């Protein structure tokens, strides 16, 4: 295969047999081979695309329009009711966390059932978790009814969420701070 050389460049022992699309840069306006020109155009296109994406991202961030969701903080104690584990999450927007004064989580189980707090994770905000056996008696057959109640006392009203998950059931409720939020759940 013949060597491609620019018109202005002499062939030297160092460049003899070297294809221009691999080694000879376009310096001083010398013509390029078609392959080198296509590769350069592809790289320039990618550079233009990258610059466009970066400019669009910067414009979104500077305009404040990039906030598509809120960041939520959550505490998630784990309770055991008659040997059935339930992971409970109390969630609130992170930007309202300093307005929160107190959070109380009460798990209401049947009068004749037993329950304990297995893990009391209160790493995101202060919360007291209690289990009370004051629900209707359970006959031991079928699903075990549990009600989770959260009360978030805060300086202002803001959205809160309550989620409970076991191996057989899950439920989510949404509410507002300063209003008790109830979540019924049946454990199988």
Question: How would you explain this protein's 3D organization?
Answer:
- The strands form two sheets. Strands 1, 2, 3, 5, 8 and 9 form a six-stranded antiparallel sheet that branches. The protein has a four-stranded mixed sheet with strand order 6-4-7-10, with no helix packed on it.
- The model is unreliable at 1-7 and 18-23 (pLDDT under 50).
- It is extended and about 85 Å long.
- With 188 residues, the protein is an alpha+beta fold.
- It contains two helices and ten strands.
- The longest helix has 30 residues, at 34-63.
Q: Secondary structure elements and their pairing?
A:
Layout (H helix, E strand, L loop, with lengths): L19 H4 L10 H30 L8 E4 L2 E4 L2 E10 L6 E11 L4 E5 L8 E8 L8 E11 L4 E7 L4 E7 L4 E7 L1
Parallel strand pairs: 4-6
Antiparallel strand pairs: 1-3, 2-3, 2-5, 3-8, 4-7, 7-10, 8-9
Summarize the structure.
The protein has helices at 20-23, 34-63, and strands spanning 72-75, 78-81, 84-93, 100-110, 115-119, 128-135, 144-154, 159-165, 170-176, 181-187. It has 188 residues and is an alpha+beta fold.
Overall number of strands: 10
* Rg on CA atoms, Å: 33 Å
| Total count of helical runs of at least 4 residues | 2
Strand proportion, as a percent range, falls in 35-45%
> What is the chain-wise order of helices and strands?
HHEEEEEEEEEE
Q: Helix share of residues?
A: 10-25%
Q: What spatial form do the alpha-carbon principal axes imply?
A: extended
- State the end-to-end distance: 77 Å
Biggest sheet details: 6 strands, antiparallel
Mean pLDDT: 80
Low-confidence stretches: 1-7, 18-23
Main structural class: alpha+beta
């Amino acid at each position: 295969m013949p060597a491609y050389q620019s018109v202005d460049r002499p062939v030297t022992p160092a460049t003899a047999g070297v294809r221009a699309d691999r080694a000879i840069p376009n310096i001083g306006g010398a013509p390029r081979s078609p392959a080198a020109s296509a590769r350069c155009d592809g790289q320039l296109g990618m550079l233009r695309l990258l610059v466009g994406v970066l400019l669009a991202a910067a414009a979104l961030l500077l305009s404040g329009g990039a906030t598509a969701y809120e960041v939520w903080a959550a505490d998630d104690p784990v309770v055991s009711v008659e040997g059935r584990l339930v992971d409970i999450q109390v969630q609130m927007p992170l930007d309202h966390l300093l307005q929160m004064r107190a959070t109380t989580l009460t798990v209401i189980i049947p009068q004749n059932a037993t329950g304990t707090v297995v893990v009391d994770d209160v790493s995101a905000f202060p919360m007291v978790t209690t289990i009370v056996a004051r629900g209707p008696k359970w006959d031991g057959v079928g699903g075990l009814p549990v009600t989770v109640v959260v009360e978030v006392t805060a300086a202002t009203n803001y959205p809160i969420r309550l989620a409970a998950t076991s191996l057989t059931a899950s439920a989510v409720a949404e509410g507002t701070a300063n209003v008790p939020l109830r979540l019924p759940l049946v454990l199988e």
